[in-house]
Amino acid sequence: MRALFSFKKRIALIVLTVLNLGLATLAPMSQAYAVPVDFETIPGGTPSEGLSINTQYLATEGIAFSLEGGGFPVLADVGGNQTAFAGPPNHTGSDNPVPGQGIGAFFLTDDGVLSGLVSPPLIVSYNTPTSAASGVILDIDFNEAFTIEARDATGIVLQTITLAAGDPNTGDGIATSWSFDRGVSDVFSIRFVGTRTAPGAFGLGFDNFYARSVTTITCRGRGKGDQDSVLLSNGTHLTIQESEVIPARTLRSGGL
After folding, report:
1. Are residue 62 and residue 174 in the same domain, yes or no?
2. Is 81 in contact with 74 (CB distance < 8 Å)?
């Protein structure tokens, strides 16, 4: 029966893995956004706890960070002073995510003061609009909730995402993923606001941000089991292995 399907109609399952060695050839990526803003490197500077983040990523990503009402978000140091949340073990760790969350040594927080029941809203502004974005919010537990708003050029909310404690993949020190893909580039800013009602202190943990997350990779038509590789801008290699024979096609992937 398989022979009845035309070559161009075959379905491919693309398996993506990240390798740290080897170099092969692949048709170039059409966008430069395959690597997230993870705050492990800062354009024109060095990451450190309390460092204000504003326009450092404007030239490379076309984005700027600010806090609603004035001021700028700052970097938090994993395991350093408690500026964003109390993580594991049992809500006692200072800015400490669960191991294996892919957070690295730094992430972004709001004003760097862990207090109150509301997190100062974080605003990500774009110099050119995007259709998609994704990332993670850390440590959504107790009765906390985060609202993520994709907004147009006038600030009108186009799409809302709500993450609440008790949802799948939330909890003490957990990195909870979020994403949107609207299919049209109409998002000029994204607003992140968090709240809680239970006694305690509240802060933001924000990381692994794909500013324009649906990344387009063009690969050649290949045979089953064949592999291609592309060198990402952070020096790692992305390998694409095809499980079926497919023609040349475009692979759309968010959060590689």
Report:
1. yes
2. no
- Sheet of strand 63-67, all strands in order from the earlier edge strand to the far edge: 63-67, 118-130, 187-195, 145-151, 157-164
Pairing of strands 118-130, 74-77: unpaired
pTM, full prediction: 0.71
Could you tell me if 65 and 53 are in contact, meaning their C-beta atoms sit under 8 angstroms apart? yes
Domain count, the chain: 2
Domain that residue 145 falls in: 58-212
Query: SS3 of 17, please?
Result: strand
Mean pLDDT of 189-200: 90
Same domain, 202 and 224: no
Most confident of 14-23, 155-164, 224-233: 155-164
For residues 194 and 147, give the distance between their C-alpha atoms in angstroms, rounded to a whole number.
6
**Is 53 inside a domain boundary?**
no
Please give the Cα distance from 87 to 174 (Å, whole number).
9
